[in-house]
Amino acid sequence: MRTFDNARPVRIAYVGGGSLNWATKLMGDLAHDGTLTAEVALYDIDHAAAERNARIGQRYSAAAPSAKVTYTAEKTLAAALTGADFVVISILPGTFAEMASDIAIPERYGIVQSVGDTVGPGGFIRALRAIPAIYEIGLAIGEHCPKAYVVNLTNPMSVLTGALFRAFPDIRAWGACHEVIKTRRTLAFLANQKRGEIHYRMADAKVNVLGINHFTWVNAMSVDGVDMMADYLAFAEQHRDSGWRERPIDMNDEHERYFEDMSKVKFDLTCRFGIAAAAGDRHLAEFVPQSWYLDRHRDFAFGLTPVEYRIRERSQKVAAAEALDSGAPLPPPAPSEEAIVEQLRALLGGEEHVSNVNLPNRGQVAGLPEGVIVETNARFSGLGIQPVFAGRLPPAVETLVLPHALRQTALLDAVLNRNADALLPLFLSDPLVQPIGLARAEQMFGEMIAATRHCLPQELACYCIIP
Question: Which burial class, exposed, middle or buried, applies to 248 when counting CB atoms under 10 A from its CB (0-12, 13-18, 19+)?
Fold first, then answer.
């Protein structure tokens, strides 16, 4: 076990280091923490973006007197990874142009998607683009920094985390997702309401997580040692029809309008099955038949996030990053709700940390096959990453989750084995695709492959029935 030494320089390789979202969150968290001595090596296929973020990172460090973090931009993946203790992976599979076709083509066939990055036709095609890239990153980690701890932030989380383990079975990796944070916030609110004063924070809410990424569930919860499950179930029943949020969605704010929800899907699933559905409504809705929620998304008060808005938002983020690079005032180095720095400190021998992550199933979720990527709590410490046994989902919920877990594993197999013949049957089996019938689904699949074939390995891009 390695004792925590805050003077020892830790090398962090950031793959996708030109990121406009996650990279600056990490910068702010490292600056706020102020105890880690770190060298952050940013790598991105857009080297200029990585150089810009390196300069912004240096500004964050300079603005926080206690911060001991330096930032550089590396021109090659190998250079960034060499000697790394810790690797962050945050990339965009393809471009927003490809994502736009992932959404628009199924819409022409009557399939509505609220996100399109995990399951459904959009998530499926995105995985085809992303798996080969993440697999190559995993191979490079095995070659250049085999002992590094690796966190994947890229969706589709399950198949991409699985690709890392296929590339390098001894990799010390996990997939990190913040969706469960929303349920923990609600739980803290309920505990404060019960206490009669604001006392608890999201971090005080403890939950037992089980399921797969973005289709996560919680079957036990507590705050300050008090069991809160009955309180949460009653709250969900109370607000099942009306929905609930600590403050209303600002309909004039496009981001809130397209990315926030009123928990009506969460509460409806919770009341149906007697176990808390724990991801955001926009993600949960895509795992079940379209008639449940997507067809009635306005009634259930969640947005369908248009790619056109994502493109405009990205332009705004680029402008904001360029302004920071030109000397605009930095946001205060307030901590985000992400757990990466806490996880890193724990792995270096600091205070033990427990949070929900994605790992291969080694029995932590009973009822799901060994090896599929599941989401449960895990314990981070100087001993490494140890998944926490979470138990088994109720039979009715397991019936919904299991086919997705099996499909994700089979999709990973098909892509890595370059087995194009296996793709269409898997695509047809998704609950959003099944209702449109074989002939139309096959036609749609061909159109989607044609739209993204330039991003695919040749053996997979050959499937195309469009003349």
Answer: exposed
- Tell me the residue type at 6: N
* b (16+ CB within 10 A) / e for 106-133: beebebbbbbbbbbbbbbbbbbbbbbbb
Rounded to 5 degrees, φ, ψ at 286 are: -85, -10
What are 412-448's pLDDT values in tens digits? 999 999 999 999 999 999 999 999 999 999 999 999 9
Pick the closest to residue 158 from 360, 394, 384 (CA basis).
Answer: 360
Q: What is the DSSP string of 276-296?
A: EE-S-HHHHGGGS-TTTTGGG
With CA atoms as reference, report the closest residue to 362 among 354, 353, 372. Answer: 372
Cα dist from 279 to 40, 84, 144, 180, 269, whole Å: 31, 32, 35, 6, 11
Residue 220 identity (one-letter amino acid): A
Q: Note if 239 is an active site residue.
A: no
Contacts of 421 (CB under 8 A, 6+ apart): none
Backbone angles phi, psi at 388, to 5 degrees: -95, 130
The band of 7, judged by pLDDT with boundaries at 50, 70 and 90, is low
Question: What is the four-CA torsion angle of 312, 315, 317, 318, rounded to 10 degrees?
Answer: 170
- Point out the catalytic residue in the list 178, 199, 283, 297: 178
**Tokens 């968290």 sit at which residue?**
29
Residue 35 pLDDT? 87
CA gyration radius, the chain: 22
| DSSP letter assigned to residue 209 | E
d(CA 154, CA 160): 7
